[in-house]
């Protein structure tokens, strides 16, 4: 009898590819967070420097490291208070205990506002993407389109940033690259009209998802906020309950400025989730902790590079592990 070698099924092959992609992303995330990690490692080393046992006052050495990593003063104080309480109870005695409890606290903060719901239950699922120019908003839309197309979903784009001709062009390039339709008008057109057409097209063509881009001038521009509110209202009139998600794209390299940006957008637009881009090479990776704690908003996706698979769903435990892995 001829022996036939074992061959993987299609589902096993798919699972293996997904696992390899996750492993590769974690490795790149770890590399990207090196500057933030170095700052935190220095603070941890100072906690027990020359000490046989950790005392509450020794944890003050961590304060500067957390603030330098852009964790923010309020969030840093909350973390230190919790750690000092554990020290007083005798649960923290050495550097390893400090690290274990610090990781746990960080994962808890980042997990606090995450929802276990099926966000794609509506069809078409309308996603409105907002953020200032330069945050990586349009590129994020392209990457999400690629991700969902790869998952077998039908996706339609709406080039709603009509104030920048380059943004419309960028959306058309992504649409052609991924192989999806893009609803657009000429530069200077009414953004609400584009959003209207995009949602109508998504309904008519029975698409799974419609991703709608928006203008991104400075967040202090009141007219921009009013324009975004109008776009959201128009979408809701075409399809009651839509947009089903409003995602804010933020640039990690601007650190605490992203917190004030997010507050302004959230007040105007009631954001559902955050996308943090440009985490590769920044020393400000700790800002995710502050922004989720301050605004009570979940981080949905993080980006660490230019390639399509450099944007992935955010996993709090993986992120914290990457912050401390050598």
Automatic annotation (TrEMBL):
Which NCBIfam families does the UniProt entry name for this protein?
ftsY
Spell out the SUPFAM superfamilies in the cross-references. Answer: Domain of the SRP/SRP receptor G-proteins (SSF47364), P-loop containing nucleoside triphosphate hydrolases (SSF52540)
| GO biological process, any | SRP-dependent cotranslational protein targeting to membrane
Bilayer topology annotation: Peripheral membrane protein
- What HAMAP family would the database entry show? FtsY
The chain positions of domain SRP54-type proteins GTP-binding read 298-311
The family database entries (InterPro entries) matched by this protein are listed as: AAA+_ATPase (IPR003593), P-loop_NTPase (IPR027417), Signal_recog_particl_SRP54_hlx (IPR013822), SR_rcpt_FtsY (IPR004390), SRP/SRP_N (IPR036225), SRP54_GTPase_dom (IPR000897), SRP54_N_sf (IPR042101)
- Pfam (any one): SRP54_N
Give the molecular function GO annotations: GTP binding; GTPase activity; signal recognition particle binding
Location in the cell reads: Cell membrane
Q: Which PANTHER family match?
A: SIGNAL RECOGNITION PARTICLE RECEPTOR SUBUNIT ALPHA (PTHR43134:SF1)
Name the family.
Belongs to the GTP-binding SRP family.
Query: This protein is called what?
Result: Signal recognition particle receptor FtsY
Q: Which intervals of the chain are annotated as region Disordered?
A: 1-21
Give the UniProt keywords, A-Z: Cell membrane, Cytoplasm, GTP-binding, Hydrolase, Membrane, Nucleotide-binding, Receptor
Query: How is this protein annotated for GO cellular component?
Result: cytoplasm; plasma membrane
């Amino acid at each position: 009898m001829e022996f036939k070698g074992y061959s993987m099924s299609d589902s096993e092959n798919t699972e293996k590819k997904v696992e390899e992609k996750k492993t590769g992303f974690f490795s790149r995330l770890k590399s990207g967070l090196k500057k933030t990690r170095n700052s935190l490692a220095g603070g941890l080393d100072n906690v027990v420097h020359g000490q046989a046992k950790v005392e509450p006052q020794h944890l003050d050495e961590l304060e500067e490291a957390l603030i330098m990593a852009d964790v923010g003063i309020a969030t840093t104080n909350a973390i230190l208070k919790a750690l000092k309480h554990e020290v007083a109870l005798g649960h923290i005695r050495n550097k390893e205990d400090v690290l274990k409890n610090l990781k746990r606290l960080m994962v808890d903060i980042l997990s606090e506002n995450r929802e276990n719901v099926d966000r794609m239950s509506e069809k078409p699922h309308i996603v409105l993407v907002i953020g200032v120019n330069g945050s990586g908003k349009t590129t994020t839309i392209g990457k999400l389109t690629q991700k969902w197309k790869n998952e077998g979903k039908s996706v339609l784009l709406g080039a709603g940033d009509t104030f920048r001709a380059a943004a419309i062009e960028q959306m058309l390039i992504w649409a052609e690259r991924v192989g999806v339709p893009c609803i657009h008008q000429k530069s200077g057109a009414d953004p609400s009209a584009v959003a209207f057409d995009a949602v109508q097209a998504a309904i008519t063509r029975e698409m799974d998802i419609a991703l709608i881009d928006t203008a991104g001038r400075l967040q202090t521009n009141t007219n921009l906020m009013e324009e975004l509110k109008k776009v959201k209202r128009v979408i809701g009139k075409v399809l009651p309950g839509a947009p089903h998600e409003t995602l804010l794209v933020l640039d990690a390299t601007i650190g605490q400025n992203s917190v004030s940006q997010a507050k302004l957008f959230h007040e105007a637009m009631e954001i559902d989730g955050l996308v943090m881009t440009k985490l590769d090479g920044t020393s400000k990776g700790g800002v995710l902790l502050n922004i989720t704690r301050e605004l009570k908003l979940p981080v949905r996706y993080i980006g660490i590079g230019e390639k399509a698979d450099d944007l992935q769903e955010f996993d709090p435990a993986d992120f914290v592990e990457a912050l401390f892995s050598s």
